[in-house]
Specification:
The chain is α/β, with parallel strands linked by helices. It has 5 helices and 16 strands. The structure holds flavin-adenine dinucleotide and FE2/S2 (inorganic) cluster.
Length: 254
Amino acid sequence: MPARRELGTVISVDELTPGMFSMWIGTGCGDSSLPGQFVALYSHDRSRILPRPFGICDTEPGKLRLVFRVAGAGTEEFSRYRPGEPVEILGPLGNGFPALSDRALLIGGGSGLPPVYNLMKHYAGEKTAVLGYRDSAMFLREDFAAAGRTVVATEDGSFGVRGNVLDAIRSENLADGAGVIFACGPTPMLRAVKAFAREQGIPCYLSLEERMACGIGACLACVTKSTEKDAHSNVNNKRVCKDGPVFEAGEVEL
Ligand SMILES: Cc1cc2nc3c(=O)[nH]c(=O)nc-3n(C[C@H](O)[C@H](O)[C@H](O)COP(=O)(O)OP(=O)(O)OC[C@H]3O[C@@H](n4cnc5c(N)ncnc54)[C@H](O)[C@@H]3O)c2cc1C
Ligand code: FES
């Protein structure tokens, strides 16, 4: 579905854990979107011209859910929205995860968890989610568990496996028989997942979160280094907003 820019309406805003919010918005921008695609929200404050991108966490006809961390002024403003408030939204944007049905490991960390949850809900094949958190302030964990097998790693060991997502995968032998890996999260996590997938010979798709400006492929603010030269610009760059945010792991250098 082509992206559209429209005025949606905030349905609810809830704080899941300190600084992490869930927002349902009444809008058609998520209808027919694919897991891994994102939307961009515009601030009411016109001094913040650029929209803020968020992975689509969940959809129902005529509404979508975002889950976001307060990182700066834009997300702080969104966290204060109340039901009934209008919100300008653009989407769906970018390319989602490929529609496969091989036995999959779905890996998410931090603010990369929302689009992975959307994939978990809709993935056609056998699936195990591996979620990485700092500590027991966990968000979306119960949603994931309701959608399928879910394994948790916390850095401080307060819940699940102590360590990171790869510690959990290794300690529980989760890669045995896996046919594909999908991941979204901080760049160091993605780099480690990419190396692990290569070492295990498992196809891998990563969703990247570069800083963005236009969100529609026009400004090159969001380029990431690619292994191959781009056919149009003849440089080793890919636009995360337009060519991604999901890439086959071998396409990008992290
Ligand atoms: C495709 C995509 C999907 C995203 N999905 C989610 C999501 O589902 N949930 C969520 O919480 N966040 C998500 N983000 C990150 C989110 O867009 C930023 O946190 C947000 O734009 C910050 O806006 P701000 O005005 O609050 O902060 P700003 O004042 O713009 O920045 C505050 C801090 O956040 C950092 N920051 C800004 N943009 C990004 C970014 N793109 N990636 C990493 N750090 C950034 C800045 O470097 C700065 O340190 C996503 C980003 C992209 C590109
Ligand atoms: S944000 Fe403008 S090209 Fe990606």
